[in-house]
Amino acid sequence: MKKTLIGLSIVAALTLSACSSGADSQSESDAPKEITVFAAASLTEVFEDIADEFAKGEPDAPEVKFSFAGSSDLVAQISEGAPADVIATADEKTMDTLNGDDLLAAEPTMFASNTLTLAVAEGNPTAIESSKDFADSDLVVCAPQVPCGAATEKWAGANDVTLDPVSEENSVTDVLGKVSAGQADAGIVYVTDIARADGKVEQVDLDGADKVVNKYPAATVKASENQEQADAFVEFLGSDTAQKLLRDAGFAAA
């Protein structure tokens, strides 16, 4: 009788163990995947909103984690092997670096565009009305290797404007931060940065800025281990939902 009870106990234990193992296995297989998106600093707020909508629209949508920085920094990180599933830059030139090095899974998709403007400190204390007033003001710009910096140089050359900035920043967010904190009189940023500044800066139009347009591309990184999910996020950027969020944030069509 005791042997029978022991045998039944062992069988029961093995059965419970098998069930537990099966449940764990099923749980692991059903666990949502995660993708990492490297994105230009100017996309910070709107991409977080887009990720929320992406999660609602896709039944098996992965969790989206972001790394926001200047486009050139992000490209350099991926070139050096940083793990990323999607890359979205603020211009085509920086993306071309990855494409030329065969680090992308497919040709980039253009999903938005942006133009330059001037952000001035609240109240415009130095009364800047145009680029003619730059000489008497502390101006900050993006560094030339950053998309907003390259666009700034292109705009200045096309409009015969001499730039003498007090500092060159590695991202447009840093430029905006210095102006909003009162550390600079003005900074050349994107029109979308004015929209996300919550009234901490004011806008002064730059003549001829509409002739210098930055197109924003996105692509799946070739080394991604979640290419299907990464492709889905890139495709979602062209959806009506994502495009509306981009328009609301001040971006124009690609």
Quick rundown:
With 254 residues, this protein is α/β, with parallel strands linked by helices.
Explain this structure.
By secondary structure, the protein is of the alpha/beta class. It folds into two domains: 32-113 and 215-248, D-Maltodextrin-Binding Protein, domain 2; 114-211, D-Maltodextrin-Binding Protein, domain 2, CATH 3.40.190. It is 42% helix and 21% strand. The chain has helices at 2-30, 44-57, 71-79, 92-100, 147-158, 172-180, 191-195, 227-236, 240-248, and strands at residues 34-40, 63-69, 86-88, 109-121, 139-142, 167-169, 186-190, 201-204, 213-220. Strands 1, 2, 3, 4, 5, 6, 7, 8 and 9 form a nine-stranded mixed beta sheet that branches. The longest helix is centred in the first third of the chain and has 29 residues, at 2-30. It is globular, with a radius of gyration of 25 Å. It starts with a helix and ends in a 6-residue tail after the last helix. Residues 1-23 form the signal peptide.
What is the secondary structure topology, with strand pairs?
Layout: H1 2-30, E1 34-40, H2 44-57, E2 63-69, H3 71-79, E3 86-88, H4 92-100, E4 109-121, E5 139-142, H5 147-158, E6 167-169, H6 172-180, E7 186-190, H7 191-195, E8 201-204, E9 213-220, H8 227-236, H9 240-248
Parallel strand pairs: 1-2, 1-3, 5-6, 5-7
Antiparallel strand pairs: 3-9, 4-7, 4-8, 4-9
Helix pairs in contact: 2-9, 3-4
